[in-house]
Amino acid sequence: MGSKPRVGVFVCHCGENIAGSVDVAKLAEEAVGLEDVVFATDYEYMCSDPGQNKIVEAVDEEGLNGVVVAACSPSMHEETFRNVVEDSGLNRYRCEIANIREQCSWVHRNGGTSPTSKALKIIKGAVQKVKRNIPLEPVEMDHSDKCLVIGGGVSGIQAALDVAEAGNEVILVEKEPTIGGHMAQLSETFPTLDCSQCILTPKMVQVSRHPDIELMTYSEVREVSGFVGNYRVTIEKKPTYVDPDACNLCGDCEDVCPVEVSDEFDEGLSTRKAIHIPFSQAVPSSYTLDEDACLGLNPLCCTECSDACDADAVNYDESSQFVEEEVGAIVVATGYDLYPKEEMGEYGAGSYQDVVDGLEFERMLSATGPTGGEVRRPSDGEVPNNVVFIQCSGSRDPENHNPYCSKICCMYTAKHAKLYKESVPDGNAYVFYIDIRAGGKEYEEFIQEVQEEERVLYLKGKVSKLEEVDGSLRVTGVDQTIGEKVEIDADLVVLAQSIIPSDRAEEVSKQLNLNLGPNGFYKEAHPKLRPVESIGGGVFFAGAGQAPKDIPDSVSQGSGAAAKAMDLLAKPTLSQDPQVVEIDEERCSGCGLCLGQCPYGALELNSRGIAEVNEILCEGCGTCVSGCPSNSLSLKNQTDEQVNEVIKAYVGD
Question: Of 186, 182, 551, 223, which is closest to residue 335 (Cα–Cα)?
Answer without folding.
Answer: 182
